[in-house]
Amino acid sequence: MQNASELRTNEWLRDEAKSLWKNFFTDAPKKNMITVQFGRPAKARLGSIRLTRKKKSKVIMNGLFRSTHVPQQVVQGILAHEFTHYIQGFGSELPKLSLHPHRCRLVDEEMERRGLGEILEFQKKWIKAHWENVVKKNLPRKAKKHIRRRTRSSFFQRQIRSFLKTR
Ligand SMILES: [Zn+2]
Description:
The chain has one domain (about 5-165): Zincin-like. The protein is built from 6 helices and 3 strands, in the order αβββααααα. It has helices at about 10-25, 70-85, 105-115, 115-140, 140-150, 155-165, and strands at about 35-40, 45-50, 55-60. The protein starts with 9 loop residues before the first helix and ends with a helix. The structure holds zinc ion. Zinc ion binds near residues 101 and 102.
């Protein structure tokens, strides 16, 4: 990771979310409050939205997006993806538009309809080209674990591991 002073903050993320909503979602129904924050750095999940018991929609963004090496448009693309889930009734109190949140490109089509097509395309391309590297650089332990799993471990190592697992 970069120096802490160079990393994006939750405040930055909230501002980003506000202007994104203002620019692309103002006409969308807003039934309950949305909060946005960075979560843990993770390999696979870029963002998520869920409805809390207090009926707030909580958007959590991958902690790796704190890095300014990840383009702003990528963060915008993922935020917009979660907002689209919100207006389609996933992680919000609005009526569900389909059985499954990702059915038939529903999210992508809604984003394109809202003028977010370019951001979406950029985000997808960038993730495809660079994400693996970002993960490798910033989550070194996970990367190592991955390699270790592939190499054969000795009988002794396996014994210790299974002992630790059962505790
Ligand atoms: Zn999704």
